[in-house]
């Protein structure tokens, strides 16, 4: 036998009227042809009424506390939300709020879309591809520095000093005259790179116009060292690895760079011919590298 439907609005009105007339629940059940327990349950629910939900006051998190939580989460990646907040001496925060804050911190931001290339950009990319189509890219020195130093802005002077302290003193001066003569130095069009000051400084160091590769605008997809950076980043952040200081990040970068397989570098270098042909085939458009 199927279960009867809930009381209708009309039946509820009749129950109220019968109660006002002094009828018992059994009599009302007989009049409505309903189970007396259904009538009794309706009367009890009506008498109790619905309890209003009392919202607990929510604890607001300040910007200073958020920074503390972010640092604690980086040092305690496997800890619970309660342990992380307690380590920061932050109490009274609901579990749902704690978890939402930590989830938001853990979100990986999507890479920004590349800006669309205009007609001038595409023409310059095609001209560049035609110019270097027969180049021996094994002689090209690809650069793409990433420098982090608090309070220092990378301008032309600091860029040249950076090259002096790292590239020239530690590596370039040890190379033979033949290597220096045939080498091609690549740098992008960042203002600190393409300035007259930097160009003149490089010329004094022996890297003159003939050894300096021109670079088309908006073209990170043509630089194989960008792919090398991706390999290094995947290595240092694998398995959710986190770092608490710049020194620890730098040590990880150095270790990852030393472990890069020489065949990978060779493959990236040899990919340049294909990149140039792809640029020409796409009439200067972005390529899939």
Task: Give me a quick take on this structure.
This is Tc1-like transposase DDE domain-containing protein. By secondary structure, this protein is mostly helical.
What's the gyration radius in Å?
Answer: 35 Å
Helicity level, as a percent range?
40-55%
Report the span from N to C terminus.
69 Å
Mean of pLDDT: 82
| Overall 3D form | elongated
**In this structure, how is the largest beta sheet organized?**
3 strands, parallel
Q: What share of the residues does DSSP label as strand, in percent?
A: under 5%
Describe the strand arrangement of the main beta sheet, using strand numbers. 1-2-3
Number of strands: 3
Number of helices: 15
Stretches where pLDDT is under 50 for at least 5 consecutive residues are none
Order of helices and strands: HHHHHHHEHHEHHEHHHH
GO molecular function: nucleic acid binding
Pfam family, one: DDE_3
Domain Tc1-like transposase DDE: 168-238
Protein name: Tc1-like transposase DDE domain-containing protein
Describe this structure in words.
This protein is an all-alpha fold and 289 residues long. Strands 1-2-3 form a three-stranded parallel beta sheet, with no helix packed on it. The two termini are 69 Å apart. The mean pLDDT is 82. InterPro entries: RNaseH_sf, Tc1-like_DDE_dom, Transposase_5. This is Tc1-like transposase DDE domain-containing protein.
How would you describe this structure in keywords?
54% helix, 3 strands, mainly alpha, 289 residues, 2% strand, 3-stranded parallel beta sheet, single chain, nucleic acid binding
